[in-house]
């Protein structure tokens, strides 16, 4: 059974020199998206703070930071994927039951 969550994630963006020829740095660009997770594949759940770089960059204004955040470990074949979702562990557990 698939359960909807909102994931906090980042992508690496390159910053180019003013002449457009040389890559200066990589910068994390944070965003939020809806994802659907198979609840039978979740192996662990732990409360997790929002990363400092996400707070500094500023996520969408309508994101309620007081809701808390959780890190889910999701089994994906032979690998485990870590997913940061909106909602503390108690909220996530309610969604899973």
Question: Kindly state the mean pLDDT as a whole number?
Answer: 86
- Radius of gyration based on Cα positions: 16 Å
Straight-line distance between termini: 11 Å
In terms of DSSP E residues, the strand content is: over 45%
Poorly predicted runs are none
What class, by secondary structure content?
Answer: mainly beta
The percent range for helix content is 10-25%
Keywords:
single chain; 97 residues; mainly beta; three-stranded antiparallel beta sheet; two-stranded antiparallel sheet; 2 helices; 5 strands; 55% strand; globular
Task: Please tell me about this protein's structure.
By secondary structure, the protein is mainly β. It has helices spanning 52-57, 89-96; strands spanning 2-16, 23-38, 42-47, 69-76, 79-86. A 3-stranded antiparallel sheet has the order 3-4-5, with no helix packed on it. The chain has a two-stranded antiparallel ribbon with strand order 1-2. A hairpin with a 6-residue loop joins strand 1 (2-16) and strand 2 (23-38). The longest helix has 8 residues, at 89-96. The protein is globular, with a radius of gyration of 16 Å. The termini are close together. The mean pLDDT is 86.
